[in-house]
Amino acid sequence: MALNHTLLGLLSFKPMTGYQLKQLFESSINHFWNAHMSQIYRELSSMEEKGWVTSIIEPQEGKPDKKIYSVTQEGTEVFKRWLQEFPETMEEAGRSDFLARIFFASHIDPADLAYELRRFIRKRQDQLNSYRETEARIKEQRKKGDPDAVFWYMTLRRGVKTTEASIEWAQECLDLVEEIKRNKE
């Protein structure tokens, strides 16, 4: 998934600044896509050069001027073409330093591994709580009749389900590590 297509999609809702786009990332699609401010601004500049977006400068008193981006007709066409071209591979191949360490965990103290698994569970639980907050906002949007909200809900539910599964998996691993610790005593 290319960042430029994601930005075009977000800008299809309304014109925004780079900062507003970053905020929208964090409050809506962070469960499957993330971008840093520098990446967003770099991509917006590139998209403007390609004619996919335009920008206007909005002066502000006592603050730096705002640069507000809007999708052009060409950008809309690029975005719609991208939407129609689903990838052959439905999942991105990933790497996990965390899983690599677990794979080789026979070389570390089980207490250290148990600590890391608990830390993993806490982080995933925090993530799940954040998703629940987002889910409540999306449900409100659905009640208001927002036609996009049902699709936002679909992607968020995937994040919720995979996070719940990750917590369950980590708890199973923690139980196994606790069993290993008991057997060593």
Automatic annotation (TrEMBL):
One Gene Ontology molecular-function label: DNA binding
Pfam families the record matches: PadR (PF03551), Vir_act_alpha_C (PF10400)
Keyword Zinc: no
Transcription regulator PadR C-terminal domain span: 95-177
UniProt KW keywords: DNA-binding
Residues annotated as domain Transcription regulator PadR N-terminal: 7-80
Superkingdom of this protein's organism: Bacteria
InterPro entries assigned: Tscrpt_reg_PadR_C (IPR018309), Tscrpt_reg_PadR_N (IPR005149), WH-like_DNA-bd_sf (IPR036388), WH_DNA-bd_sf (IPR036390)
Name of the featured protein: DNA-binding transcriptional regulator, PadR family
Lineage of source species: Bacteria, Bacillati, Bacillota, Negativicutes, Selenomonadales
